[in-house]
Write a structure and sequence with these properties.
Blueprint lengths: L19 H14 L12 H8 L3 H13 L3 E4 L3 E4 L14 H7 L4 E11 L2 H6 L8 E10 L2 E11 L16 H9 L3 E12 L2 H7 L6 E11 L5 E10 L13
Antiparallel strand pairs: 1-2, 3-4, 4-5, 5-8, 6-7, 7-8
The chain binds 2-acetamido-2-deoxy-6-O-phosphono-alpha-D-glucopyranose.
């Protein structure tokens, strides 16, 4: 039983609007993906889960049923719920954070935080499919690769999913890691646009380039792993002389 309390999100959070069955499901999924539970291990029963996490049996049952529907576990009547053999879940284009992206290119990621504040913004709210008055957390960082400025990144998150995230210091920690480890948020997909534009005064200043020079603009909307609920909208302006966008495509 002790194994189920290890992992990034150690407890269920009642102060965020993610349903408890969903949080419990994600927590168990993480244990399976990190091999804390191995294929064919028996998972705790509904009763055990409800006691350990202080949730109703209905909630525990819903988490197990969803895990079964997603192919992570299988049930044997009278014996319990067991971890299924892993499926190949290799995505075509992986949804990565800046930190992962830069590390994968053999460089050291970093950030200079310019702004972290609570705002409301009609245009962004529309992209996130929430009311114009919804509180958003704006995190603006100059992203560094090997200590050189690479991008000006402005992220907006829906605050009620990650209350108090504005207190994190994003100089050295990954935003996606905080979402995952502190709020149990797992991302499912992102939609991203990439276009060319010329650097405005702020971009030129922080990226240390001439105003008017061409840069790459990326706009991303990121969704929870229900693939329906937007959680983040990001506007990133990359130096085009230091960054090449890479996509791997597969036939069929
Ligand atoms: C990437 C993402 C951005 C995300 C950030 C998190 C694009 C265009 N943007 O830069 O959406 O907020 O990673 O990075 O790819 P972090 O986890 O390293 O803070």
């Amino acid at each position: 039983m002790s194994r189920i309390v290890k992992g990034p999100l150690q407890r269920l959070r009642k102060d965020i609007p993610l349903p408890l069955y969903y949080q419990l499901k994600e927590l168990i999924k993480h244990q399976i993906e990190t091999k804390a539970f191995k294929p064919h291990d028996r998972l705790p029963s509904e009763i055990e889960l409800s006691e350990v996490y202080g949730v109703s049996r209905m909630t525990a049952r819903r988490a197990l049923v969803d895990l079964e529907n997603e192919g992570f576990v299988y049930r044997e009547s009278g014996r319990g719920t067991f971890v299924a053999e892993p499926k190949l879940r290799q995505g075509l284009r992986r949804l990565t954070s800046f930190t992962e992206d830069i590390k994968a290119r053999g460089m050291v990621p970093g950030a200079k935080v310019r702004e972290v504040e609570l705002v409301s913004d009609e245009h962004v709210a529309q992209k996130l499919n929430v009311d114009a008055t919804e509180t958003l957390v704006k995190v603006q960082r100059v992203r560094l690769a090997d200590n050189l400025p690479l991008a000006l990144e402005t992220s907006y998150l829906i605050h009620r999913y990650c209350p108090e995230i504005e207190q994190s210091d994003f100089t050295n920690i990954s935003l996606y890691k905080v979402l995952n480890e502190q709020y149990g948020i797992y991302l499912g997909k992102a939609e991203q646009y990439l276009e060319a534009k010329s650097a405005g005064p702020l971009e030129a200043q922080v990226l240390e380039i001439e105003e008017g020079k061409s840069v790459l603009l990326m706009e991303r909307t990121t969704y929870l792993d229900d693939n329906e609920t937007p959680i983040e909208f990001v506007n990133s302006v990359y130096r085009s002389d230091r960054y090449r966008f890479y996509v791997e495509l597969k036939a069929g």
